[in-house]
Amino acid sequence: MNEIPKRTIIQKYHVRGILITVILSLLLIFSSIMTGVDWSEFFSNLGQFFALLGRMANPDWQYLNVVVQPIIETIQMALLGTTIGTAVAIPFAFLAARNLVKSLLVRGVTRFVLNLVRTLPDLLLAALFVAIVGIGPTAGVWTLAIFSFGMISKLFYETVETIEKGPIEALRAAGANKIQIIVFAVIPQVINNFISYFLYTFEINVRASTVLGYLGAGGIGVFLQRSLSSFRYDQTAVIIIAILIVVVIIDSLSNTLRERLL
């Protein structure tokens, strides 16, 4: 008797899977038509990609001594930018949470600011800060700080809004003020998620700082841009390998820490 309902459920999800696949395929086709994407052109020029890989097949390992310091600078930029952005994002996250702030005006203004910050592209921010503070890691740090602020603040206030209301109501009934409620009822419930989001953003910033270097925002991206501009693909291969190693190490450490926290 139980086999019939099981088969019905399986068939139901099978049909849903087919419908979702068809819808996604249609969206892909219509998007390609509307944007003018020519897939045949990509495959016809695929040989150039393999030719480029062939030129990168013999890395200049002596160049590794040159990229060590820029790699360290990239990690430092990501760490500083993430830390600054997180420090500023925490109070904004509490102001944007509807279960902590009842004023619609305060929440609305706060969320508008956060939406505005997230609207600004990273490359635009990097170009602005390069124009303000000049070429170097300082521009990269401030760019990553603003990017981190926009992303972490949204993740933080969404996490705060999902906490249990019991501890908050108990402290309010006992006459606790806003600061006491946040310290004793909110932070203990969200601290693990906060740390997880910090580590996740740090991972993203390490990768993003590589791209920001193209605009002169410091880090390994500057050397990547130089090697590509001078057609030294053997040096480019060394930079890519170094970035890959750093990203894998940071990703492994972050995943380990998140697993232990959560």
Automatic annotation (TrEMBL):
Protein's membrane topology: Multi-pass membrane protein
Transmembrane segments: 15-37, 77-101, 113-135, 181-200, 206-224, 236-254
Record's keyword annotation contains NAD: no
Record-annotated ABC transmembrane type-1 domain positions: 71-254
Principal location listed in the UniProt entry: membrane
Keyword annotations from UniProtKB, A to Z: Cell membrane, Membrane, Transmembrane, Transmembrane helix, Transport
Subcellular location: Cell membrane
GO cellular component, as recorded: plasma membrane
Transcription regulation among keywords: no
GO molecular function: ABC-type phosphonate transporter activity
Similarity-based family: Belongs to the binding-protein-dependent transport system permease family.
Family annotation (PANTHER family): ABC TRANSPORT SYSTEM PERMEASE PROTEIN P69 (PTHR30043:SF1), PHOSPHONATES TRANSPORT SYSTEM PERMEASE PROTEIN (PTHR30043)
The protein's name in its UniProt record: ABC-type phosphate phosphonate transport system, permease component
